[in-house]
Each structure stands twice: as C-alpha cells, then as structure tokens.
Amino acid sequence: MNLLENIRIVLVEPMHGGNIGSVCRAMNNNGITDLAIVAPRPETDWDDARKLSCQAHAQLEARKEYASLAEAVAGCTLVAGTSARTGFYRDTALTPREFAPIALESASTHKVALVFGREDKGLYNEELALCSHILQIPSSELYTSLNLSHAAYVCGYELFCAADVFHPSEEKADEASSALRERMFDMWREMMVQTEFVHDQKLDHMMMGLRRIFNRGKLTIPDCKILMGLAKQSVWVANQWRKAQSND
Amino acid sequence: MNLLENIRIVLVEPMHGGNIGSVCRAMNNNGITDLAIVAPRPETDWDDARKLSCQAHAQLEARKEYASLAEAVAGCTLVAGTSARTGFYRDTALTPREFAPIALESASTHKVALVFGREDKGLYNEELALCSHILQIPSSELYTSLNLSHAAYVCGYELFCAADVFHPSEEKADEASSALRERMFDMWREMMVQTEFVHDQKLDHMMMGLRRIFNRGKLTIPDCKILMGLAKQSVWVANQWRKAQSND
C-alpha cells in the first residue's frame, strides 16, 4: 500500500488562501492527498488558494473542514504538531527527519496527522497538548519562523523521501572496464606524442594528471568512445600534417 | 568559518516578486545570505517581494543583479542547477541531500551557487550546461513541478542540516572557477571543430558529453591548464596541417 495515503495535513485557522493553495501544491509534490482545515476563516480568499494550488485542485476541493483540532485528528493514531518556539513541552521535539520513520510505521495501518498552526501565532498550548509528537524544523537561530507552506512542504518532503517512493535516476550507460579505459589512455598518450604536446620526459607526469582527472568520476563505455574518437582524430590530423610537410 | 556564507542562491529571470521575497525568507531560515538575480524583469513587484521576505529585508536589498547566468556564477567553483525534467544530461542528477556534503566541502574555501530557473520554464539547456551539477528534488512522479520558493527552501534546508554535522577535509589543489572551466570548454569546442572531429550538428551533443565527463569530479586549476594546453596544441597542429595543405 501507499503509506503516504494515510498522511493527513491539518491546517489550524490559516489566514491566507494563498498559503492553503501552496500547501496543496506541496502535498501534491510529495504524493500526499488528505487535507483538513480547522475553523476556516470566512474571509479566506479561495480564488487565491485555487490559483496557488496549481494542479492540486483535487486536494483543495476534497478538503475536510472541522470546528476543532480534536475533531480533525480524532481518527489518527499519531498527531505531530509543528512549533518554532521552545519551552512548554517542546523540549522533547523531534525533527521531521527523525519523525518520518515513526510516522510511516504507523501509517501502514492508521492515519497520521501533521498539524500546522496559524501564520502569526502558531499552535496554542492546548492544541499542542493534543499532539502525540512535537516537530521542530531545523532552522537558523536568527530566524526560526517559517512560511506555512514551507513548513508543510518540508514535513511532507521528509515523509516522501523516507517512504522511498522516489528512485533517483542513475547513470544508465554501462561503466567502462579497466581494459577499455587503458585503451583510451594509450590513445591519449599517442595523441600527446603525435601532436607534440609534451616531450618524452614529461609524458608520464602528464598521463598521471589525465588519469587523475578522468578517474574522479566513473567513466562509461560511451564516454571512453568519445575520448578515444577525439584522440584518434587528433593523431590523424597530426599525421596529415607531417605528410604534408614531407611533401614540401 | 560559517560555510553557509559561501552559498549563493541564483534566481534566473524570476516572474513573481512574491516568490523572490519567499526565497529570501527561506534563505534567512537556513542561514544563507547571498542572493543573485539574473536578468530581473522590469515589471517585478518589489513591494510584494519585501512583504513576503518578512524579516529578510537585508538579503533582498543586498541582492546582486547580473545580465547573464555566466556572470552570476563566474566566481563560483560548484554550480548546481535544479531541474524537474528528465532527459538531456539530467540522468546524472543528484538529490539536494546527496549534493549537500559536496557543496559544503567546496564552500569551506570557495563560493558555491544553487541555481533556480523561471517559474514556468525552468532553466534552459544552455544554462544547465553552465552547471557542474544537476539537482533533482525528490517528488511524486504525478507532479514534479515545485513552487520556486519551495525548491530554494529545500535546497537551503538540506545544506543547513548538513552544515550542522559537516567537517571539511584538508585542502589540496585549488578548484577551478566556472569562468576558467568555461574557457577550457571553449577551447575544447574549438579543438573539435579544427580537428574536424565532429560536424556542426553533433557539436553541442558532443560538448554535453564532455561536460558530463569533466564535471563528475571537481576540476582543479592545474587540471584545467592541462586540458587547455592539450586543446591549444591540437588546434595548432590542425592549423599547421591546413597551411601545409594550401602550400601543396
């Protein structure tokens, strides 16, 4: 099953429709679909919300609305509240990265809530009291107050990364064998000689420099072929040059 | 020293002032101060930028403006471009988490750039070509397009988290700047033309292959000098050859 389907994002009394929309977009980026809003404000600019949600209209329209936080999280096992401040019982806070495996463990069987407070005042102490976990997002001591959608985004992102839904792309081409690399280096040595780039005494030194450059990352078979083609062509040009000279 | 001081956030032709402001706030949350904007749009809503930057007015006001990406990153060693799309040479992309220790290693002595494209079109291929690294932010396959400030935030966040535990290793040879690398690539392009290694249509493709090879590991100043010397010599040989032919 998709663990992320059991993650619920809960916004408590959000002030700006634009932020609600940005949170929906962030949920969409991280494969999260369940949005709950506690005590939505009558003046909320829903047009702004739709605009900023980009292609996450579905999440926005499917949102559930509740009168209180207690109702919004009633069906959840874990309830993680975010807080920038210290004090209260925030000194037991986890980072979102620390919380992610705990959340996913629970999400295999139950709903897990991530709760975000008002843009200006965050979550009140009685709301934090409803939370089984307090999350503190790592940030500079000089400015700990995150934009609401940034906070929701990064918590979703940590869950998404942990859920291992993402498979980073890797170099697809086959790695070159030592034998192929050595053939390539031989051709480069030949190029340096034929183009009279270096004299005999400095040749080995120069080859070590080139080996160091090319061996820092892994070379693929196509890479070696490019490099061999280039060397071959320079050798050919050098030979043409010599022939032309001897014809003079 | 504070490694994060050597991180430069580069926004290329951002469309919305609000996003620029949100990026500043995100930088502030992650202890990053250096902002560069490439080709700022005359219609930019700077009031909106100021409003959304919250307490990051200083970062916003201290921004540097450049006409081109090449100028904005000329003094940087590593240049990491973000891209949501696949294809081109994006198949070698790193996640921001994978890139963080690489960036901090370099940031102990040099400037490192994180580059973000336009909200609608991202970075163009010729801009990605200037990047030593391509970053792909883990996201749901169903919707990979991140809000600009979310993308900048999460890259800054990964650096901030990594900086907490990172200890740079001892220094060796000096790393090459973007400007020096680009001079080297220009000379290699010239070599490929002069030695008739590739035809015009395949030249860009071949250059991308070479960029990929050389950017896998970091290039030092002596490395670049070797590579430039080699190219210069091949061009010289090719010219001698042509001269000799015309004398026939």
| Distance separating the two termini of chain A | 78 Å
Per the CATH scheme, the topology name of the largest domain in chain A is Alpha/beta knot
- H/E order of the elements of chain A? EHEHHEHEHEHEHHHH
Q: What's the level 1 CATH class of the largest domain in chain A? A: Alpha Beta
Helix content of chain A: 40-55%
**Sheet with the most strands: spatial strand order of chain A:** 3-2-1-5-4-6
Mean pLDDT of chain A: 89
Radius of gyration of chain A: 30 Å
- The number of helices of chain A is 10
- Helix/strand structural class of chain A: alpha/beta
Considering residues with a beta carbon less than 8 A from a beta carbon on another chain, report the largest interface and each chain's count. Answer: A-B, 68 and 71 residues
Number of domains of chain A: 2
Strand element count of chain A = 6
Oligomeric grouping of the chains: homodimer
Which regions of chain A are unreliable across 5 or more consecutive residues at pLDDT < 50?
none
Could you state the CATH homologous superfamily of the largest domain in chain A?
A: SPOUT methyltransferase, trefoil knot domain
Largest sheet composition of chain A: 6 strands, parallel
Described by the principal axes of the CA atoms, the overall outline of chain A is elongated
Please explain how this structure is put together.
Chain A is of the alpha/beta class and 248 residues long. Chain A folds into two domains: 3-162, 3-Layer(aba) Sandwich (Alpha/beta knot); 178-247. The first copy, chain A, has helices spanning 17-29, 46-52, 57-61, 69-72, 96-107, 125-128, 148-162, 178-194, 200-215, 221-247; strands at residues 7-12, 34-38, 64-66, 76-82, 111-116, 133-135. Chain A has a six-stranded parallel beta sheet with strand order 3-2-1-5-4-6. In chain A, strand 4 (76-82), helix 5 (96-107) and strand 5 form a beta-alpha-beta unit. The interface between A and B is large, with 68 and 71 residues.
